[in-house]
């Protein structure tokens, strides 16, 4: 299911992670030749991709984001 990128953060290993509108996160590595995302390497490139869609496989599988799970349990 396609979801918009709403922000970014780095993981504990220093890799960029896109924050999606659904509450899930997805790595957006530039790791040629397997993954070609040179835009992730600069602040300008990442800013240009805000609002772009990525396929969220967690949404495809009906996984509830951790933040929403916590809200539902309260």
Q: Can you walk me through this structure?
A:
The chain has 74 residues and is α+β, with helices and mostly antiparallel strands. The chain has one domain (2-73). The chain is built from three helices and four strands; from the N terminus they run βββαβαα. The chain has helices spanning 43-48, 57-60, 66-73; strands at 2-10, 16-20, 25-27, 53-55. The chain has a four-stranded antiparallel β-sheet with strand order 3-2-1-4, with no helix packed on it. Strand 1 and strand 2 (16-20) form a beta hairpin. It is globular, with a radius of gyration of 13 Å. The relative contact order is 0.24. The mean pLDDT is 91.
Features:
single chain, 74 residues, alpha+beta, 4-stranded antiparallel beta sheet, 3 helices, 4 strands, 24% helix, 27% strand
> What is the percentage of strand-forming residues?
25-35%
Task: Assign an overall shape.
Answer: globular
Order of strands in the sheet with most strands: 3-2-1-4
Q: Cα distance, first to last residue? A: 28 Å
SSE map:
Layout: E1 2-10, E2 16-20, E3 25-27, H1 43-48, E4 53-55, H2 57-60, H3 66-73
Antiparallel strand pairs: 1-2, 1-4, 2-3
Brief characterization of the structure:
The chain is an alpha+beta fold and 74 residues long.
